[in-house]
Write a structure and sequence with these properties.
It is a single chain. The protein is α+β, with helices and mostly antiparallel strands. The chain is built from six helices and six strands. The chain has a domain of about 60 residues. One of its GO terms (molecular function) is ATP binding.
Length: about 140
């Protein structure tokens, strides 16, 4: 662990909004702060492919958007980003391609616009969802 490694770690912490947390004991961190430390750890490795299971878990809304924006930037820069999301509105905002699992063995796969539709989402979630557009963004709300 030399100076270059420390610089990478500090840059990653800064990127996830944890600048100044370098000396904090992990036991004193909130669940959201721990999640951002985990994301920072990934960033230090500079992967070309991110495999993420609920990267917005434990994060408040501000950091959910900030972290998913960060992964969108990585995707735009040519990295692969594969993530599991249970929040259909985050998927509608960030995903290019979607694999929708319905919990009963059913699978739908395709572009975001093909898969994220009222009928398939309602069937998958077992509750009717309605699609709305607001300021050019698609949102889904339970009926």
């Amino acid at each position: 662990e030399g100076e270059a490694d420390e610089a990478l770690a500090r840059a990653a912490l800064r990127e996830v909004g944890l600048e100044g947390f370098e000396a904090r004991d992990v036991q004193t961190l909130s669940g959201g702060e721990r999640q951002r430390v985990a994301i920072a750890t990934l960033l230090t490795q500079s992967p070309r492919l991110f495999l993420l299971d609920e990267p917005s878990n434990h994060l408040d809304l501000h950091f959910q958007i900030a972290m998913l924006d960060l992964f969108r930037q990585r995707a735009n820069a040519g990295c692969g980003v594969v993530m599991v999301l249970h929040d259909v509105n985050l998927a509608a905002r960030y995903a290019d391609h979607v694999i929708l699992l319905d919990g009963r063995g059913g699978v739908k796969a395709g572009s975001r616009d093909e898969i994220l539709c009222e009928s398939w989402l309602s069937a998958a979630f077992g509750h009717r969802l309605r699609r709305f557009e607001c300021d050019g963004k698609v949102i889904f709300l339970p009926d």
